[in-house]
Amino acid sequence: MILQKLYNDYNFNIELILTSEYKKLGLNSNELIILLVLFSNKSKKKIFSLASIARKVEFNQNEIANIVTGLLEKDFIEIKLETHNKKEREIYSLDKTFQQVQNMIVEEIKNDLQQENKSNISETITLLENKLNRILRPNELERVRLWYDTYNFDHIKIISTINNLDKNITIIKVEKILDLDIEEPKEIDKEVDDALERIFKKI
Question: Do 113 and 195 share a structural domain?
């Protein structure tokens, strides 16, 4: 999980994201406070202790227990029993919080891309209609949407192809040229860089 690796290896400040986005994550302010306290424990072995948490907040242990129950139900933390020196103790994990934050960011990226696609599709449709001197038919509109949503043709290449064609332009002709001029697959590193840039903009 990329966020967890950033946090563990590079001191990535996930607490800042939690503080600014906790409502979007479905948390209330009390749950945020307890979650931040749990993150403040930097030891490798995350021993869960109501008494320890109570010393750092203004809630009593019963209130903390109720808040923790909410975090468990919302899949932000996980608590397991572990035997140590013949004694049982509770160990908590924050892996699910990293997953929740990552899911939120991925969803935001998808929404951003959808909005970008809508704008690009609108620009392409307008250009085609100007070239054809008529409104696109329903089946033609569907083909244009497929260029973006299914085939992932590059927007700049689509616009360039349309502009370079003569007056006998057709949707099929544009699509055939785009099919013949598929670029090499993008490097994974570039995609990771883009994702990281979006993440760091939240800090």
Answer: yes
- Which of 31, 65, 93 is the last residue before a domain boundary? 93
SS3 at position 33: helix
pLDDT tens per residue across span 131-155: 999 999 999 999 999 999 899 999 9
Q: Are residues 62 and 81 in the same domain?
A: yes
Q: pTM for this one?
A: 0.71
Dihedral sign from CA coordinates of 197, 9, 73, 17: negative
Both tokens of 53, joined, read 């948490």
SS3 47: strand
Per the structure, the complete domain to which residue 49 belongs is given by: 2-93
